[in-house]
Design brief:
The protein is mainly α. Helix content is 57%, strand content 3%. The radius of gyration is 24 Å and the shape is globular.
Length: 406
């Protein structure tokens, strides 16, 4: 080898090694195999408030199907309080009656979306109040009446019976599926995983110093991250290893993440979310906040995708049932009522790296207006309209209509 060639080779090697040394080293974190974190032998994971609200939500879902309930009964469950804020005992579980938590208090209450938008938050809570009222005053009295355009009542769905309003909508589905967005998704993605909450006040300095919250084993930042985790896995019998029972632990986000995970087109999404929660929590322990925020963005993208996939699925199932011969209105209305709730929930999703949802509240309102026509609602919606709406959602999220809709 000529000297000039040897010199060039040596120069290349030196340059390559120097360049490698200048690169940011990959972050090495101690990430546990389960969601288990300890300090001095004591668990630092806590999300009891989220567990309470999930259990309250489950009881509300059951009560919405109890035709003996009054508006006051259901409103008390939603707010965990009487009409003037007085203490009540609306739940079957004594521990929930003793809890200071409520579902209504955390509906549309995230820091990032609603701290400076209280008027919209009030509108959203009023919408849930209205759906509760509609269930009691429109649907319950018509329990034994055959539903038809403009008339609330019952309609057959195979061997099941659905109870709908005059537009063909099931209020209980609007409430439960709407809470998946307005409570669970909003609090997770736009509150507890946000830097405005995680880094509030002295949280960063306290976390760096290992200074725990008063009388607690965890730092405030650790606890906020865990509260986000609790809205997905708070009722899991083994919350440290929750994927074994995924889909069976509550009637909200856990249930529908399980449904999406069981679709072969999306298998692995639950593991990605779980791994991001673990790695983000480990990053907090290590004081690696850029890595923490990167994991938060993974969670935002994947959880938002769950909302979109289920919205598209129910729109397309409704389409197929309307196209059946004869049209299966009961099945279609049930699908589209669930779809309504998931479309409503799109306004609480979060685009990674932004402070905005995939669909704005105004865009959601436009979609819902297309779904429920001005005169007779679901009785008049066409299969073509449903497919067009599904296409709008899949395009925005970069999803496949065939995969999400089947």
């Amino acid at each position: 080898m000529k000297f000039s060639q040897l010199f060039a080779l040596l120069l290349f090697c030196v340059t390559f090694i120097t360049a490698c040394d200048d690169e940011e080293p990959s972050i090495m974190l101690e990430v546990p195999t389960t969601y288990a974190f300890e300090r001095e032998g004591t668990s630092t994971v806590s999300f009891t408030g989220q567990t309470d609200r999930l259990a309250m939500g489950n009881e509300i879902g059951d009560a919405l199907k109890d035709f003996t309930k009054t508006e006051a009964d259901l409103a008390a469950m939603y707010a965990n309080a009487g009409p003037n804020g007085e203490d009540v005992a609306p739940y079957t579980q004594a521990s929930l009656n003793e809890s200071t938590k409520s579902v209504r208090g955390k509906t549309a209450a995230s820091r990032d979306y609603f701290s400076t938008n209280t008027a919209t938050a009030a509108e959203i809570r009023a919408e849930f109040d209205g759906w509760i009222s509609g269930q009691v005053y429109e649907v319950f009295p018509a329990a034994n009446v055959a539903a038809e355009p403009g008339q609330a009542g019952q309609i057959a769905d195979g061997s099941a019976v659905r109870y709908v309003n005059a537009q063909g909508l099931e209020y209980d589905q609007l409430i439960i599926k709407g809470l998946i967005g307005a409570l669970m998704t909003d609090q997770m993605l736009n509150n507890y995983l946000g830097t405005s909450v995680l880094d509030e006040a002295s949280n960063v300095a306290d976390n760096d110093a290992g200074t725990v919250a008063d009388g607690k084993p965890y730092t405030t930042m650790e606890h906020k991250w865990d509260e986000a985790y609790g809205y997905l896995f708070g009722l899991s019998p083994d919350a440290a290893s929750p994927l074994n029972t995924l889909g069976n632990d509550d009637d909200f986000l856990n249930k529908y993440l399980g449904r999406v995970e069981n679709d072969e087109d999306y298998a692995g999404i639950a593991q990605r979310i779980f791994d991001a929660f673990k790695r983000g929590r480990a990053a907090i322990v290590a004081g690696e906040y850029e890595e923490r925020d990167a994991q938060a963005d993974i969670i935002r993208e994947e959880v938002s995708k769950v909302i979109a996939i289920r919205a598209v699925y129910y729109l397309m199932q409704g389409k197929f049932n309307l196209e059946a011969t004869p049209a299966a209105y009961g099945a279609a209305f049930h699908d589209l009522s669930e779809g309504y709730g998931f479309i409503y929930s799109l306004q609480f999703t979060r685009r990674p790296g932004t402070d905005a949802p995939y669909f704005s509240r105004e865009e959601v309102a436009t979609l819902l207006a297309e779904l429920t026509t001005p005169t007779n609602g679901l009785w008049e919606v066409t299969p073509g309209t449903l497919e067009s709406m599904a296409n709008q959602i899949t395009t925005r999220f970069g999803l496949s209509l065939d995969e999400a809709g089947s």
